[in-house]
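Progress report, Aim 2. The chain analyzed during this reporting quarter is listed below.
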Amino acid sequence: MRLRTDCTAQPDLCDRIDGLLDRNRQHMMDDLYAYEPELIAVSRVKLPQETNFTSWLVFMQPHPEFELFMSNYTLVRTTKAHSFFRRMSSESGAQ
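Predicted structure tokens for the chain:
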């Protein structure tokens, strides 16, 4: 895991980990664009800090297109376990 890796001592390993994380983010973005889901359910269960990311939203944040993609969604409900984001229709002002 990236947090447990000494990037000063193992820069190549950190580069490989970062590449893997970037590819995973890109694959998720590819799916989001391909399927344009009406509803995105995001777990609110916090991951252990050792995972580097406490949530899917935090994990996806570094992707350069994520913020723009999510700007077409609005938070419609929050439960103890999940947050639900609904895609805005063109009638409601989404582009």
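Residues 11-35 form the longest helix (25 residues). The longest strand covers residues 73-78. These observations will guide the mutagenesis work planned for the next reporting period.
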